[in-house]
Amino acid sequence: MTTRQTCLDLDAADPLAGVRERFSLPDGIIYLDGNSLGALTRSALVRVNEATAQQWGRELISSWNTHGWIGLPQQAGRKIARLIGAEVDEVIAADSVSVNLFKLAAAAVRAQGPERTAVIIERGDFPTDLYILQGLAAAIPEIELRVVEAGGFQAALDDRTALVLLSHVHYRSGAVRDMAAQSALVRKAGALSLWDLSHSAGVLDVRLNRDGADLAAGCGYKYLNGGPGAPAYLFVTKRHQDILRNPLSGWMGHARPFDFEDDYEPAAGIDRWLCGTPPILSLTTLDAALDAFDDVNMPDVRAKAGALGDLFIEWVETRCAPHGLTLVGPREAAARGGQVSFAHPDGWAIMQNLIARGVVGDFRRPDVIRFGLAPLYVRHVDVWDAVEILGDILDSESWREERFQAVSAVT
Amino acid sequence: MTTRQTCLDLDAADPLAGVRERFSLPDGIIYLDGNSLGALTRSALVRVNEATAQQWGRELISSWNTHGWIGLPQQAGRKIARLIGAEVDEVIAADSVSVNLFKLAAAAVRAQGPERTAVIIERGDFPTDLYILQGLAAAIPEIELRVVEAGGFQAALDDRTALVLLSHVHYRSGAVRDMAAQSALVRKAGALSLWDLSHSAGVLDVRLNRDGADLAAGCGYKYLNGGPGAPAYLFVTKRHQDILRNPLSGWMGHARPFDFEDDYEPAAGIDRWLCGTPPILSLTTLDAALDAFDDVNMPDVRAKAGALGDLFIEWVETRCAPHGLTLVGPREAAARGGQVSFAHPDGWAIMQNLIARGVVGDFRRPDVIRFGLAPLYVRHVDVWDAVEILGDILDSESWREERFQAVSAVT
Q: What number of other Cβ atoms are within 10 A of residue A32's Cβ?
């Protein structure tokens, strides 16, 4: 049987134990919301101060060249590429997930020609993925949007399908899709797969090229720890790079942006997916944060995420057994991303009480409490202690009364 | 006749003299490139450190609410609104100029219906404005893009015109368009006007509503001093806010973004123009930088911009008379934005020499040297001294030989 000492022993043997020192974590908090906003790295803090005070403040415009601001989207993209099984010149940091999904989906449909204009997405996926495709279909009436039930994309594939947008890990349940099998299904139907990696990159051992993904986009501020609203990234596999055209053809994606020509000519390779001038301070923190992955093997990260999740589930179902928490999403580590979710009718109040006691997760309506277990800085003992606190709260008689007070402290 | 002492006297009497203290400027540099990258404010430096170390680092996810991250796009928008003659709920900070132009142009064409699908822009405008419309027209084949000669938009207006994209101040020459007259021409033709304010906001007394503008977008990192690649902003006048739909319908523009619904419903008012999660650190510096405009009257800013430009032209044409510099763009202050440009066959080498001597402007091919005179921190005496240094360089016999050495120092 697992004990707190078992957890301490597991942490001592953890190949990622030293990585936690790369983060600047607050005292007295067990932070289990890295799937929503990743923690601050020490390198990001140093570099954003340097970029602001010295590079911008003292050296001003020249820093675009002397400090490599102009190359940051590619530089961050190369670092992300290693984490997601892509070539270094297949990934670039740019804009937001929403904007990147729009770019890629619009480009894919256009490249597929007039006989293939249907785009498929499953209901219940992350809302912005649905919203962006709805906006795209409204802007380009030729596009037929098929919003199908969860699990139903395969049945909707046909010879008019241009693109399928799939979440690698579901934002609510944490369930992982089989990227290789589902990419193959999409490809067999003659369509392109577009993967949203927001909840998988940085926590799973993502292998885009091995698994046959065509396109992908993902978030910079969750498991990549890029900071609040950090730039996102996108992936276009080599074989599509010459064909696809970015509809958001801003100057930074031009073949010669500083020639100030009147006619757009897309840059070669991945660079064409840039649009406007990137937000350098936010991009700098993303680039710095990615250094926390230096020397980190993604299989180790994936294994630890699985172990932390297994421990969380086991201990909740033991320690909190009488309290009616129901696991949401997969029980098996292999089918689960970096988070564990439970449903409870009073989920919202429970989360407020947890936050008031220093355990930070989040709540998703109507009744889901969600815990992100970021393997780079969450320890086994943190999981143990968090569940102990959860158990204490549920065992107490007062937590339902405390809810309103607790809420006002965190809203 | 103007002397250096005249300049010192003008600075002493300048109502904006104290505003310079709000900036953190490097010693030994005369910075005349605020039209490309505005200078660092003291408040931005403080606030980005606070947002990184304390808000993100210590308080993590809760800062979205407790530190108002979620409201920053609107908060920055309200501050910008005062500078451009808009209502506080007509402006929002979001994305880049390029992305915002795409959103607004796509929305405008769609709202105009199938009988009006032509979009007009003039050749020689800022490249990304041209490129974005080219990308839009390629993505939505119904759109007819008319790229007309400079000065030719009026002749291209007809009953199929949906939208005209106009730069308020030309990025190269600094020439100002008559916003009231040209908005009226566009409106009379039944089209909508979309103004690019990148080179006018923060230096001219822009009056969007008084002058009948329909739509606008502009840059956060030039005269607004928001930092490298700071988020841009956009303006939609009240009468169009209910009609226009953002094609980039990301979750932050939803009526209830945190209800995680499957169907997009645009937020009321200006909020629908958000798309993905904004880059909070870059947005924080923009928001902080805008406080440099507190208590600043835009007519004073505009008057000083005119006076600095007049002084620059007068003193170049006096001090550097034999050296073949030709004024590019308007001579009259009323027709000029916040910059002055001169053409010279050796413009590139001249600018490299200036930079090596601590006078920072920029060069635009093929032969234009461009100087931005940001009224919040550039003094009359800075203009005087910059032209003195320019004269010294041109008078010397060695500057053509020095060019290669100088270049390597700044590339």
A: 26
